[in-house]
Automatic annotation (TrEMBL):
One of its GO terms (biological process) is tRNA modification. It catalyses: 5-carboxymethoxyuridine(34) in tRNA + S-adenosyl-L-methionine = 5-methoxycarbonylmethoxyuridine(34) in tRNA + S-adenosyl-L-homocysteine. Its EC number is 2.1.1.-. This is tRNA 5-carboxymethoxyuridine methyltransferase. Belongs to the class I-like SAM-binding methyltransferase superfamily. CmoM family. S-adenosyl-L-methionine binds at R26, G51, G52, D72, A101, Q102, H118. Keywords: Methyltransferase, S-adenosyl-L-methionine, Transferase, tRNA processing. The lineage of its organism: Bacteria, Pseudomonadati, Pseudomonadota, Gammaproteobacteria, Enterobacterales. The keyword Methyltransferase applies. InterPro entries: Cmo5U_methylTrfase, SAM-dependent_MTases_sf.
Length: 262
């Protein structure tokens, strides 16, 4: 098995994710967390956006004055990210590497201060190994922003629409070349991996805790402002965190030596 590469469906990815209310809502909630996280870090930091795709988040970080290295296994995504950086006027603050996250250490002179790893963990064959690699390339005192596809949210969504047989069969993905992630993740498993490696989890946010469950889909667009306000109100408390379609976790690498995770 190999990690997913989006070269073949980059345009579909852009249209169906960032061109929809679900993408807009995801970015809005994510930036609430990121701005709060950046406020706790030094004024100018080195940031790695691992699997950064088209660069929307990376460019936003660069716009805030930070130095960003974006890597992605997809050459098409890298090209799109470079074009966006040029459009936004932040190319001087950004660097691009055609590389998978597992090999990023070969392209870093020293560990970074913040790692962004958004909607990638669910596409890799060995997620725990990738998290260990990210740990090794993060400076002590640095932070991790991890967003992953939530298996609980997938289950809830399929039950809402009555896909009982699909749920009973274990929700196995049948087609590879789709935008549905290969490996939905159980939140408690991800939290355990992080803590086992040595990270201290500082925050958990459910992303799209209501949006995808609305029976009237027109309200996703027509009622977006009210929906965003309600998502913001409830997305950082249970049970809503654990029901989000994605979960955003922030964590820090302690200043003291890391724990042995072998």
């Amino acid at each position: 098995m190999r990690d997913r590469n989006f070269d073949d469906i980059a345009e579909k990815f852009s249209r169906n994710i960032y061109g929809t209310t679900k993408g807009q809502l995801r970015q809005a909630i994510l930036w609430q967390d990121l701005d709060a996280l950046l406020a706790t870090l030094p004024e100018k930091i080195r940031v790695l956006d691992a699997g950064g795709g088209e660069g929307q988040t990376a460019c936003g970080v660069a716009e805030r004055g930070h130095e960003v290295l974006l890597c992605d296994v997809s050459a098409e995504m890298i090209a799109r990210a470079q074009a966006l950086a040029c459009e936004k006027g932040v190319s001087d603050n950004m660097h691009f590497v055609h590389s998978c996250a597992q090999d990023i250490g070969q392209h870093l002179e020293k560990p970074v201060d913040l790692i962004l790893f958004h909607a990638v963990l669910e596409w890799v064959v060995d997620p725990q190994a990738v998290l260990k690699t990210l740990w090794e390339n993060l400076a002590p005192g640095g932070a991790l922003s991890l967003m992953f596809y939530n298996a609980n949210g997938l289950l809830m969504r399929n039950m809402f629409v009555g896909n009982f047989e699909y749920v009973l069969q274990g929700m196995k993905k049948n087609k590879r070349k789709t935008l549905s992630p290969d490996n939905p993740l159980q939140p408690e498993q991800v939290y355990h991996w992080l803590e086992q490696i040595g990270w201290q989890i500082t925050g958990k946010t459910g992303v799209r805790v209501f949006h995808d469950y609305l029976r009237d889909k027109h309200k996703q667009r027509d009622g977006f402002d009210d929906l965003l306000e309600l998502e913001t109100r409830y997305c950082r408390q249970e049970p809503f965190v654990s029901l989000g379609r994605y979960i955003h976790v922030t964590a820090i690498k302690p200043l003291e030596p890391r724990k042995n995770y072998e």
